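Case study.
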Amino acid sequence: MTKKILIVDDEPNIVMSLEYTFKKQGFEVFIARDGSEALEILKHHIPDVILLDIMMPNVDGYQTLSYIKESESLKHIKVVFLTAKNKASDIEKGLKLGADKYLTKPFSVKKIVSEILELVT
Amino acid sequence: MNSYSLVFIIIIYLAVLFYIAFLAEKKRQSKWVNNPYVYTLSLAVYCSAWTYYGSVGIAANSGIHFLPIYIGPVIAAPLWIVLLRKIIRISKHHKISSIADFISLRYGNNRFLGALVTVICLFGTLPYISLQLKAVSETFEIISGDNSYISTVVIDDSTFYVALLLAIFAAFFGTQNTDASEKHKGIVATVALESILKLIFFLIIGTYITFYLFDGTSDIYEKISVSDNFKDLTTLGKVEDGFNWFFMIALSFMVVFLLPRQFQVTVLENNREKHLKKAIWLFPLYLLLFNSFVIFIAWAGKLTFGSTENAEYYTLLLPLEHGNTFLATLVFLGGFSAVISMVVVSTLALSTMVSNNLVIPYGFLDKFIKNQPERNSKYIKTIRRISIFTIIITAYFFYVLFSKALSLYSIGLISFVIISQLAPSFFIGLYWNRGSSKGAIIGMIVGFCIAIYTLVLPFTLEVYSGTDDFRQYGLLGIEALKPYALFGIDFLSPPSHAFFWSMTLNLFCYLTFSLLSKGNYRERNYAEMFVDSKNFTNLQDSALVWKGEAYVTDIKNVLARFLGEQRAARALRIFFTKYELSQDTQLADARLINFSEKLLTGSIGSASAKILIASVVKEEQISLVEVLKILEESKENIVSNKVLLEKSNELSQLTSRLKEANEELISKDRQKDEFLDTVAHELKTPITGIRAATEVIMDDEDMPKEIKAQFLKNILQDSDRLGRLINNILDFEKLETGGLLLDLKEQDIQRTIAKAISSISQIAAKKEVQIVNNNVHSFMLSYDEDRILQVLTNLLSNAIKFCEAKTGKIIVDYKLGNQLIEISVSDNGKGILEEDFLYIFDKFYQSQDQNTRKPEGSGLGLAITKQIVEKHNGKIWAKKDIKNGATLVFTIPFK
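After joint prediction, the assembly is written out as follows.
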């Protein structure tokens, strides 16, 4: 069965690389430019995993994750933070909110893929 | 009326007064006794038999000269609020019991000064009391029509018995309490009642004579105006009379404060300071009423009897002449009332002085120290009672020996002049702290001697020698020493003359010796306390500079001798509580010494109190140097306290400044953290893009060409972004740390605007946003073109960013203001949110409402813009209240 991934990031160049890579890995990829777009998509599609940036306009990553964890139908979705914020306090906060993994930018695409695969299989 | 019925009336009247005094003593707290009216009426003890009978005599003989004696007090009354209030406060605080005590305390509990004042008061008051007795006996004779009273034997003289009765009254109600500073409510109440009676009776007889015997005031006036010397009687006359008037007014002005009986009622018997407020207008009114009929009675008497031989008793003689014995008796009783109040209050005041300032300090102190408390208090009372009897009896004999030859008026003035010798040390001492005891003593003695020489001696010698050689030719026949014309001043009346010389020399001596000699520390202490009585509460007990060794138990023993064990213990308890000292304190300090002296002052006078306390205290004399040192130390303390206060103020200011600085630092630190965070984020983003894209291309060799090209384009884009960002950060850092130097040149702003528009026109064209340059006029101005270009480009790209594609329109405009040029960039985009106005120029600030793609910029654009504008001494702001779109404005001043 095809795995579904939702990539949430406001940087189009980064999204493009990720989208290309995951599609090649056989994922069905959804793209959102911020939290509100992501939540909109989640109304219609339930992905297996969400790759979530934190610093975004409008609804940021933290808010988006909180919303997901409050929703009965969404809270089972694996969430991976992918952000430039790499302070210990940020990481702690992210994991406390219920993220399954916390990965930092800049990143190795291969590493991201292996982490995600580890989560969904 | 025969003398027996008159005696009977007198006895009834005295019984009534005894009863009233008794009631008042019994109900000391009653409103009937403690009100401003009783206080004011008691002040009218000023109007003695002299006023009652003497004024008419003067009016008949020499016209309106009876008036100055009342004008003085009337002038003095408004000053009471200031002057008397001060005196009353001091007296209450120090438990002063007489004017002798007051003056002696002012000059450092000076024993000799207290005694001297007492002696002067005795000399001044004895003739005055004898004057009252003379009035009683003469009026008695007139009413009873019996002249057998002029008995050669004292036993037969009814006046003697009257004097004795008065002495009993004064002794009984005047010595209820050992502490003479306690109020004598009974005596005050009777004095007030008598003041009403004497005024009413005098007004009745005035009305009777003026309107019943004659046809009103104008009738009397018309009749008298045809007499020979009428003009002399109603006008002031020559310049000399003016002098006489002036001196008499000054004299009465002083004595209304100084007469022992006046001091007694105005100061010592004052219950509340506020009673003064009523007294200052009510008392002058009383005097005015009293004098309203005087002149008409005098004229009426003159018209009726022709001669002015017995003019002083016209008020009695006129009704008797018309057979009205009842009215005459009323008048007699009015006069008798005036006599009783004067005699009783005077002897009360004098006896306190004699006991507290003469007898006790000069003879009985040693005895007191050895005695039991109950016996001491009994002794003091006995001394006072004996004094009262002695004074009245002495006055009686003075009357028998001298007064018969003199008029009431002249005796009264002799008293006034003698008493007025207290004036310089009393009044000046209140306001001049240099006034010293030496000055006071010498001034008083000199003044007193002159008064005796110029006033008392002439008539005494005349009575004894029967000739008036002394008056005619002066001492030893020396012209300049003629008693009524010293050094050739012969145009004044004898009392004015005596007052002039005695007061001038008294004042001169007082001032000179005060300036020449400084008092000891104790004296200066009290001087300070009297003069600076406003700070009295601060000074109080601790004001005394005192050095020595004393034990509380010793002091307690002394106190107990006069106050009794219980009261002494209670007083000490109160003292210790007040100053928060332990109840079993062993060593006494200056405050306790002063406190104890004050406690004893009421009973035995201030000088004696000082001596008594000194007997148990090993006081060390403080040298002047030490006093100065103490003063200097306290001064230094004050100064260093001031310095400390200033320092502490400075410190707290510094603290708050530090706090502010710290807060600023913290906020700066936070800002720096945020800045670094943001910078890191902004740097990481393009790097992430580059890294990811590169990795994808590398790992996928069979990537389609177009996709590969897209990835490469992304890499290029991100690299550019990275370069721009680094440039901006460097720029910003340079601007913020002030390291940037402007390259100022005179150039055309219009050209710069055009340049900026053209440089950004490609981006605008891409989004199909229109840019309009509104003002095409050139204007030369000095600025750094590259930097202003940066500003304009920033503003323009911002505007493009917020404009809708295709419909967007941007207007660049400039206008000239006051010494500056104002350049604006307006767009028709979505505008700036109200909450953003304050922050849009902050670095990395991004509106929450920004749902477009991230700008090309770095988040530093507007912050840099702001720095550049401010570097040019201009300002930048976003215009508020714009209908649609946003307008950003900046200014560049001309110079």
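Observations recorded in class. Chain A touches chain B at residues 10-14, 16-18, 20-21, 24, 34, 55, 57-58, 84-85, 105-110 (CB under 8 Å). The first strand of chain A starts at residue 4 and ends at 8. We will return to this complex in the next lecture.
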